[in-house]
Each structure stands twice: as structure tokens, then as C-alpha cells.
Specification:
This protein is mainly α and 321 residues long. The protein has a domain of 215 residues. The protein contains twelve helices and two strands, in the order ααααααβααααααβ. The protein has a two-stranded antiparallel ribbon with strand order 1-2.
Length: 321
């Protein structure tokens, strides 16, 4: 069984209660330098505890779930009368990954979507709901361990919530695509009437800042939805982890191709599996970023001085012993 970080919020809360050191903790929080060092220590301990194991799980599950997710997206797009939106969703996703990874995934995803029509598409969509649900549950477990809590609700309850979250994610992706189309139209108008602004929009497009902004919003929604109930509201920020993960993803998509261009032996090492291994390496790095983002949110979770000792009446998570 994976260990739990001794720097998780629940572990820290127990130590504060047992030692009666709330006043001392408040004084330490008021010192900015000490606060930053404390947060970095908490993140480092949490990532070291089981972060690399979770990053590996996320890499594998993402590679397994990416195809079913787009099958589900194509089915929902067809239901809404926007058949081409399924392919557009794929293209929008591929903008956020390095070109090397996009070249590996694009033909495979396109072939999978082209081979599924009618009832076969909907069967694939149902399978996709379950498969992508496993990925969502892995992220939920990462957050649960980061905060030092465990579930008290039955398995089927979380699966249903994960499926609902997946459907909302697909709808959100379709809305994001519509906004991108609107942005392209606005860009065309501005280029026509304000030629000087052409360079600014070119930079935004070239460096994928717009997809990164959408990615931040998606990650923020994911962190809010999957954070344990006790820490979902109140003075426990969610945006730092989402922002870090989005920037980590953005940096990886820029730097990984440069790194791989200097290493020519990986194709000789993996042969015909080089493309799949490249995708796995990318998703492993992204998975590690998700773990760090979760640990960052947990590290920033400090309790106010007047925090009550009792568990909330409607708590859905309980501290881990």
C-alpha cells in the first residue's frame, strides 16, 4: 500500500491539535520566507512519498484513456448535431502536446474515430466512460493522499460522479472549441482593421497561450471537483496547483521536442515502440506535474486559528489514521 505524506494537511492538523501549537503555527505563517520554505518542504515530502508511482499510473492510464475519451466526445458531438466537432476536439487537444507526440497520436486517433459509426460508436462511448473514469479516480486518489484523507462513500458513488465529470469535460471541450472559432473570427476582423495587432496574435497562436489558458480552466475545474470535501471550500486555494500544472504542461510541450532532438538513440532503443514510448514519457512528465500541483494545493492548506476540532456534519472524507 502506498504511504501517506507526513506533511499532508490532515497529518499537520493532528500534530497541531496534539501539541497545542496553533499560536506558534500562526507566528510562523506570518513570516513570508519561512512560509515559502515550509511549503516547498511539504511539496517535496509529498512528491517523494508516492508521487513517482502516481505519475507512472497516470501515464499508463492517460495513454489507455485518450482514445476512449475522443470516441465519447465524437458520440456526444454527433448527438448534438455537430459531427465534425469530434475531430476538432482531437485537433484542439493535439495543440497542447509536443509535435512529436501529436504526430504519434493523430493518425491512431483519427483511424479509431473513422472506424466507429452508428451503434459501434455508442458502444465505444460507453466503454470510454468507464475507462476514462479510471483515470479520474486515479487523480481523485492523488488528491486524497495529498490531503491525507480517505473515502467513506461506496465505490459506485464515485464512479457515477466521475462519469458525470467526464460528460461535463466533453461539453466543456466543445464550448472551448467554439470559443476558439470565435477568437479566430475576432482575430480576422482585427487584422483587417488594425494591421499592427497582427504580430501580437501571431505570438499567441505560435506559443499556444490560448490552449494553455483553456487547459488552466479545465485543471482548475478538475481540482475543485476532486478535492476532498473538507478542503473543497473555505481558505484552501485550488488555483495554484492548476496554474502550476498548466505551466508545467506548457513548458514540457516546448522543451521536450528540443531535448529529444539532441537524443537520437531512443528510436534505436525502442525500435517500433519508439512512438508509444515517446507518448508515455510525455504523459509521465505531465502526470508528475499533476502530482506536484496536488501537493502544492495541499501544502498551502492551513487551518485558521478558530478551526473547530469536530468533523463537519456532512463530511464525505475522513482523516487517514
Amino acid at each position: 500500500m502506498l504511504g501517506l505524506s507526513p506533511e499532508s494537511p490532515e497529518a499537520r492538523r493532528r500534530r497541531l491539535r496534539e501539541r497545542g501549537a496553533r499560536l506558534h503555527a500562526g507566528i510562523r505563517r506570518s513570516r513570508v520566507g519561512a512560509r515559502a520554505i515550509t511549503v516547498l518542504k511539504r511539496v517535496a515530502v509529498g512528491v517523494y512519498t508516492d508521487g513517482f508511482i502516481h505519475a507512472g499510473n497516470l501515464a499508463y492510464l492517460t495513454l489507455v484513456a485518450v482514445f476512449p475519451f475522443f470516441i465519447l466526445a465524437a458520440a456526444i458531438a454527433q448527438l448534438l448535431g455537430r459531427t465534425q466537432a469530434g475531430i476538432a476536439t482531437v485537433n484542439g487537444f493535439l495543440l497542447t502536446v509536443p509535435p512529436n507526440v501529436a504526430d504519434v497520436l493523430r493518425p491512431a486517433i483519427t483511424d479509431v474515430l473513422s472506424a466507429r459509426t452508428g451503434n459501434l460508436l455508442w458502444i465505444g462511448a460507453l466503454v470510454g466512460l468507464w475507462t476514462v473514469g479510471s483515470l479520474i479516480e486515479t487523480i481523485r486518489d492523488i488528491l486524497r493522499r495529498a490531503y491525507g484523507t480517505r473515502s467513506k462513500q461506496p465505490f459506485w458513488h464515485y464512479r457515477l460522479r466521475a462519469m458525470g465529470l467526464i460528460i461535463l469535460s466533453v461539453l466543456g471541450a466543445l464550448v472551448a472549441l467554439s470559443l476558439q472559432v470565435l477568437l479566430a473570427a475576432v482575430e480576422t476582423v482585427i487584422e483587417k482593421f488594425f494591421p499592427v495587432a497582427d504580430k501580437a496574435f501571431g505570438l499567441i497562436t505560435a506559443y499556444r497561450l490560448v490552449p494553455t489558458a483553456f487547459l488552466f480552466l479545465a485543471l482548475y475545474f478538475l481540482f475543485v471537483a476532486l478535492t476532498p470535501g473538507r478542503y473543497r471550500t473555505g481558505p484552501f486555494p485550488k488555483w495554484p496547483g492548476a496554474a502550476f500544472t498548466a505551466l508545467w504542461w506548457y513548458g514540457t510541450s516546448l522543451l521536450l521536442p528540443i531535448f529529444l532532438s539532441r537524443i537520437s538513440s531512443y528510436s534505436l532503443t525502442y525500435g517500433g515502440l519508439a512512438g508509444a514510448m515517446l507518448a508515455l514519457i510525455f504523459f509521465f512528465i505531465i502526470g508528475l506535474g499533476v502530482v506536484i500541483g496536488a501537493e502544492l494545493n495541499a501544502a498551502l492548506a492551513d487551518f485558521p486559528e478558530d478551526d473547530e476540532e469536530e468533523e463537519p456534519a456532512e463530511e464525505t472524507e475522513e482523516p487517514t489514521a
